[in-house]
Amino acid sequence: MKELKKFFPPGVEYVIPYDTSLFVKISIEEVIKTLLEAVALVFLVMLLFLQSLRYTLIPAIVVPVALMGTFATMSFFGYSINVLTMFGMVLAIGILVDDAIVVVENVERIMAEEGLPPREATIKAMSQITGAIIGITAVLIAVFVPMAFFTGSVGAIYRQFSMSMVSAMVFSAIMAITLTPALCATVLKPIEPGHHERKGFFGLFNRFFRRTTAGYESGVKKMLRTTGRYMVIYGVIIACVVWMASRMPTSFLPAEDQGYLLANVQLPPGASTGRTLAVMEQAEQYFLKEPGVAGIVSVIGYSFSGNGQNGGLLFVPLKDWKERTTPEVSSAGIAQKAMSLMVTIRDAIVFTVNPPAIRELGNATGFSLRLQDRAGLGHDALLAARNQLLGMMAQSKVIKSARPEGMEDSPQLRLEIDRDKANALGLSLIDINTTLSATFGTTYVNDFPNQGRQQRVILQAEPNKRLMPEDIDKLHARNAQGAMVPFSAFTQSRWITGPVQLVRFNGYPAMKVQGDAAPGASSGDALAEVERMVSQLPAGVGFEWAGQSFEEKAAGSTATLLFALSLLAVFLVLAALYESTAIPLAVLLVVPLGVLGAVAFTIWRDMPNDVYFKVGLIAIIGLSAKNAILIIEFAKDLQADGMDLVEATLTAVKLRFRPIIMTSLAFILGVLPLVLATGAGSASQRAIGTGVMGGMITATVLAVFFVPVFFVVVRRIFKGNERQRKLYAAHMHQEEEKS
């Protein structure tokens, strides 16, 4: 357009009033901003715990290297930079630094406690935690891999997260066992005695954390004396999780403020273009007075219902998100206000909607139903069933704005041709049809040259000659003898009412119904209410969901399978790594603790169980297992070295408490910008960030106490396989000989 503007006549300008790419661009910019904020918060957490720029620099270097590797992998597999993959990047930020933090923290601990130089301390530290890093990475990958094999629109969403997060975690693990140890050995300096005896803020923090660690160790010691009591408490927690999860409202995707609205205008059947234009002008004047509206684009003759002179569609671009910071001028606020005021237009039905989160899944948010005639009841019976359903919806407290989608039955002029008379007069049906088409439609005659250009000759009757039924009687058709025969000699016309469009859905005659959930109700509640109402319709009338509603039902049915596959994958990976079924069981017992926080925080923020919440739950499975592995890996090794089960567990929790808190806090603050997001795409960011953050908080606070209990209980029940028992007995025999 910039190039074409050079050739415009004087005074002619161009404007782009409707551009959906702006939402995509600004959404990506907002996610990048969130990504940078997450990196900054993670950096501050590392600085707080490591208290040295040298130590903090090492994990900070890992982040851009791993992200570059992730982008390269995504490009190789044909993925783009979009909102979903960038969400995966933000979630991965906290995980990316986890492995590096674990390495740096362990090196720093060995240098401080044993006085080893950086190189020797790094070698010893890697011998202790390499297994844990590999285990954590394998578990996190195993959690997300099943997501990549789901099909449909839900599968497309899952694959974006799966690819971005798995790629990031693979590179994070590679960096943790290659680049991070090399940096530790070369960048770090030997630690002087009294390193942790600092003054000022860091000294205050160190003393506070030492007291917290001592109190934590004491608390765990008391819990291990009465493990049965805490397993009962754990059972109560599981019951609470199941109870809360079963009562969560469901949805597919959060409704986003995409920077524009759609307004559908539908007049009564048979309404003229002039009446439609008058209603469109009323709607335009209303929207242009709204403070959040930037402009308007109107189309007459086309609407969500179909093509016809009694329909119209308005595209309403809104002002920039920075200028619309209050709920009243958000897309949902403007749409709700418009819906309440447009009912005053008596000549038409005008409803304003938010576009769906995925443009290909329907025309608007809310539910989309296809009522089907499955028993050959006929058009009239199906229409009566639809009207009965709309009447029930109008009385429901769960549903609002229920409306038919499609062109209503309208007056039609039926032309009856007496074929016997037409044949007797020498006319064929082709002659009759050609005359009618040329009069009321158009007929191409030929082309002719005009001032150097070829132009078409189109035959059509004048408008005033095709307005009334009587105009048909005035038509003449040429018969086989060349004589002109009037239509009045062989035709009769009468008015009827009938459908102007025939809708079929999966082979059945169907009618479309749309609507929205009422304030305070979720889309899942609306779907359940509609299904209940449809069951009360006459026999032979069925239904199917379409568009976003179909995907929502599909997402709900696959969620259980997805969680089961993720848990099974984690169990199998851990069983292969540790050659034991007891350790994977101890690790997986921590998962409900994370789910508790995800469900509780989501309910607290009045959010539904949607696709992003499910993605967050999958992430919580892996992150909960990560914290458990950090404790259980050390406890298992210490027990294998001959230490008593309880003593080994207490030593492990003391050694791993600091890195667990550090990595968990880094992840929690890393997703905090998602939880507090505003502007374009903020609804999706909040949806995924809330569940993950809540789940990580409880998975950390509760898991550091319950994981030792799980490990001790499981170890007491499962003594290990025969090989492990022989190794343990041989080790104990050697210790006795030494003593």
What attributes does this structure have?
739 residues, 15 strands, single chain, Multidrug efflux transporter AcrB transmembrane fold, 60% helix, alpha+beta, five-stranded antiparallel sheet, Alpha-Beta Plaits, four-stranded antiparallel sheet, Multidrug efflux transporter AcrB TolC docking domain, DN and DC subdomains
Give a description of the structure:
By secondary structure, the chain is of the alpha+beta class. It has 3 domains: 21-253 and 552-738, Up-down Bundle (Multidrug efflux transporter AcrB transmembrane fold); 259-354, Alpha-Beta Plaits (2-Layer Sandwich), CATH 3.30.70; 411-498, Multidrug efflux transporter AcrB TolC docking domain, DN and DC subdomains (2-Layer Sandwich). It is built from 24 helices and 15 strands. Strands 5, 6, 13, 14 and 15 form a 5-stranded antiparallel sheet that branches. Strand 2 and strand 3 (306-317) form a beta hairpin. Helix 5 packs across helix 17, helix 17 (547-578) runs antiparallel to helix 18 (582-588) and helix 21 (645-675) packs antiparallel against helix 23. The chain is elongated. The N and C termini lie far apart (89 Å).
